[in-house]
Write a structure and sequence with these properties.
It is a single chain. By secondary structure, this protein is an alpha/beta fold. Helices cover 32% and strands 20% of the residues. It has eleven helices and 13 strands. A six-stranded mixed β-sheet has the order 10-9-8-13-11-12, sandwiched between helices.
Length: 358
């Protein structure tokens, strides 16, 4: 049995490359939002190189507003979802991004790459674009058309490129390549939370009886789409595992997998273990779904995100941060081991569910 407790939040030491030239000082910073689900401690670690900033997305429970990541908020959200209380989310204000961009300019960065969750699910990209107009340094805003570690892997790929001394255009390319290559699947035991927020849209008829269906969903073209209707929770979980394995079997080269959960960590551990058995060389992470996403998916959501692995510069120190696609330029120092965490792959098409995280 995998000892997930020992692995959670742990970053593995890099393998040093003797005599390697130190990487140049990064010129480009990376900004994202709290829907990215980056591992605990990664942003503050040497692996992020001090160049990544995360702007919090508010979660409103009744008349109380919470920021992402506090234990108090997680407990309050779980209770509110269990009791069917009113839960809402909002995009960050442009002023929050303006302040972060200005801080990074003051810190000496020459440009910023601002990487965000799908514009089909939130207006966060619009807030970033408004703020970019008044930034003292150029800001490149990216709509990843993704969420959770589909977004997080893109942030880590961008950070790896920036740490390797790449310019803004190359950092943008690394983030976009990662986002395009990421696949996300997820399962929700109840559609009630999506229904409450009016998120089912045109797909409501496809999904059928809300209380009889255990749907497998995906992120495609930046929207939530239904893949399959399953009648029982055990069958839905088995199907999610099967779809994840199918996606892994289509991949060539190293991959990273994130398994997200909210209120069902044991099921997430079983799914992550199944992924490791299927592909022993995969880097697997296990982590809670960000509150801003769990507020819409509800208790018991289970998700898997899959993306190509990426090399990171040796200077990044402990705990590589990467997540996909194009590795930094040739000659970059040693590849490093990374932690384990989780979310889900995407597959087929379907009618989009009109989820809007605002």
């Amino acid at each position: 049995m995998m000892d997930w407790a020992a692995m959670r939040g742990r970053w593995f030491k890099s393998r040093t490359a003797g005599g390697a030239e130190p990487a140049p000082r990064p010129r480009v910073a990376v900004v994202t939002d709290s829907a990215c689900s980056l591992p605990d401690g990664w942003v503050a670690s040497e692996g992020a190189g001090g160049l990544v900033r995360v702007v919090s997305m508010p979660v409103m429970i009744g008349d109380q507003i919470y920021g992402e990541g506090t234990d108090k908020m997680i407990g309050a959200l779980a209770l509110a979802l269990a009791q069917g209380q009113d839960v809402r989310t909002s995009r960050p204000a442009p002023g929050q991004f303006e302040a972060v961009y200005a801080q990074l300019a003051d810190a000496g960065f020459e440009a910023v790459v601002s990487i965000h969750l799908s514009s089909g699910l939130s207006g966060t990209v619009d807030s970033a674009r408004l703020a970019a107009r008044s930034s003292p340094v150029p800001v490149h805003v990216i709509d990843t058309a993704s969420v959770a570690m589909g977004l997080g892997f893109a942030v880590q790929a961008a950070a790896a490129a920036a740490l390797a001394g790449e310019d803004a255009e190359q950092v943008v390319a690394a983030a976009r390549a990662s986002a395009v290559a990421a696949h996300i699947l997820f399962y929700v035991p109840s559609l009630d939370q999506l229904r409450r927020g009016g998120r089912l849209g045109a797909a409501a008829g496809w999904l059928g009886n809300l209380f009889a269906v255990k749907p497998i969903l995906a992120i495609r073209d930046g929207l939530v789409v239904p893949l399959e209707r399953v009648r029982t929770a055990p069958k839905a979980l088995a199907r999610l595992e099967e779809l994840s394995r199918e996606e892994l079997s289509r991949r060539s080269g190293p991959v990273r997998v994130a398994v997200h959960h909210f209120g069902n960590e044991a099921e997430a551990e079983r799914l992550a273990s199944a992924v490791i058995r299927e592909l022993p060389g995969a880097e697997v992470m296990l982590c809670p779904l960000p509150a801003v996403l769990a507020a819409h998916a509800g208790l018991g959501v289970l998700a898997v995100a899959i993306a190509p692995a990426v090399k990171v510069p040796d200077d990044a120190g402990t705990g590589a941060g990467d997540g996909s696609a194009a590795a930094p330029a040739a000659g970059t120092p040693a590849e490093r081991d990374v932690p384990k965490q989780a979310y889900g792959p995407a597959a087929d098409a379907g009618e989009s569910i009109g989820t809007d995280i605002d």
